[in-house]
Amino acid sequence: GRKLYSAHLLSPHRIHEFLSNTITSEIHILISEKLRNVGTTFVNLTECFDSLLENIICRIILRQTPSQVIGSSADGSPQLSQLMHEAIQLLITPLMSDYVPWLGFVDWKAKAAMKKWRSTYSALMDQVLARREQANNMSGDVNGAPRDILDVLLLPEHNFSRAMIRTYTLVVLLLSYYR
User: Fold this and answer.
1) Are 128 and 62 in contact (CB under 8 A)?
2) What whole-number distance in Å separates Cα of residue 127 and Cα of residue 122?
3) In whole angstroms, what is the distance from residue 116 CA to residue 6 CA?
4) DSSP result, 63-81
5) What is the DSSP string of 98-160?
6) Under 8 Å CB-to-CB from 69, ≥6 apart: which residues?
7) From first to last of its 179 residues, what are the pLDDT tens digits of the chain?
8) What is the DSSP letter of 59?
9) Is there a contact between 153 and 169 (Cβ–Cβ < 8 Å)?
10) Cβ-based neighbours of 166, under 8 Å, separated by 6 or more
């Protein structure tokens, strides 16, 4: 995983590409949307920078902002940012079974929430992957230079399963949301 990210995501060429395209456009969007309507109201810079960071990292990974990454509208699935915030809450929730293993039955509610979250995340990422694979097949862009980390993970030479792609994506997304 580390070689994959350093070779494809953190190379000087890719960083320059992200800087010139993704980061610059996200900063422009932040300035034009948030700061244009300032007037006499205060701007929460922490919120602005958190949103900026989430958008940049999500665009580097999935070529979309978190608000654009949604499941099918019919099932009312949450947006990616909401899912990531739920994941952080689940990760920081202490479980009794971590301290006293034979009291694991006490954690049934937390474990049920984790299973529900996992199925929701898997369904969302499966839809994202299906759309990306369809787009790559239609445009023939698979053999070209990868445009984001998801394109790298979908390259045929890596032969990653969907579960592995979901996990790699989850780790990077969680790192961007956990502050």
Assistant:
1) yes
2) 9
3) 33
4) SS-TTT----TTTTPPPHH
5) HH-GGGGGGGHHHHHHHHHHHHHHHHHHHHHHHHHHHHHHHHTGGGS--SSHHHHHT-TTT--
6) 58, 62, 79, 80, 124, 128
7) 667 666 666 677 777 777 777 888 888 888 887 666 666 577 788 888 888 888 888 888 888 888 777 655 545 556 788 888 899 999 888 888 888 888 888 888 999 999 999 999 999 999 889 888 888 776 655 455 557 788 888 888 888 888 999 988 888 888 777 66
8) H
9) yes
10) 121, 122, 125, 126, 129
For residue 86, the SS3 value is helix
Helices 162-177 and 80-92, axial angle in degrees (round to 10)? 80
> Three-class SS of residue 73?
coil
Q: Which residue has the tokens 């984790």?
A: 114
Cα separation values, 171 from 72, 82, 88, 89, 140, Å: 23, 16, 11, 15, 28
**Spatial CB neighbours of 133, under 8 Å, sequence gap ≥ 6:** 154
Residue where the block lists tokens 């099918």? 72
Contact (Cβ atoms closer than 8 angstroms) between residue 125 and residue 166: yes
